[in-house]
Amino acid sequence: MPTFRPFIYIDTKDSSCATQQWKPSNQPHNKMIFFPDGFNAGTDPASFKLVSAIVRTHYSNFRGYLDQFGTICSYRYCPTQEQSYMYDPSGTKVSANLGRIELG
After folding, report:
1. Strand pairing partners for 65?
2. Nearest CA among 30, 32, 13 for reference residue 21
3. Would you call 9 exposed, middle or buried from its count of C-beta atoms within 10 A (0-12, 13-18, 19+)?
4. What pLDDT is attached to residue 28?
5. Cβ proximity of 99 and 83 under 8 Å
6. φ and ψ at 85, to 5 degrees?
7. Number of independent structural domains in the chain
8. 91 has which bridge partners?
9. Structure pTM?
């Protein structure tokens, strides 16, 4: 079984229309920010603060829009397979644990 790598999933408003031409196996990967191998993802305040900075920087760098998928509306930080936390584009954590995220 493959090893899980923590990631941040990028949720886009226009993704259902914009991704029809993309293969399902390619879609989720193109909408993820992966942490480096060995990164110790957590649910402590320092981890949430780091994710917040990553989200703000990503949103700013891409100006709120992914060419293949549309307008960025939120991010989901997934430190484990069974946990996910939603962030708004400003980097504010806006949810408690939402559980497993289903992709593709």
Report:
1. 71
2. 30
3. middle
4. 55
5. yes
6. -130, 130
7. 1
8. none
9. 0.82
Asked, for residue 92, whether it belongs to a domain, the answer is: no
What is the extent of the structural domain holding 15? 7-87
Q: What is the DSSP string of 8-77?
A: EEEEETTHHHHTTTS-TTTHHHHTEEEPPTT----SSHHHHHHHHHHHHHHHHHTTTEETTTEEEEEEEE
Select from 57, 50, 55 the least CA-distant residue to 11: 55
Mean pLDDT of 82-87: 96
* 96 within a domain of the structure (yes/no): no
CA distance 80 to 10: 16
**Rounded Cα–Cα distance for residues 4 and 58 (Å):** 22
pLDDT at residue 36 is higher than 60:
yes
Burial 19-36 (b: 16+ CB within 10 A, else e): beeeeeeebbeebebebe
For the beta carbon of residue 12, count every other beta carbon within 10 angstroms.
Answer: 19
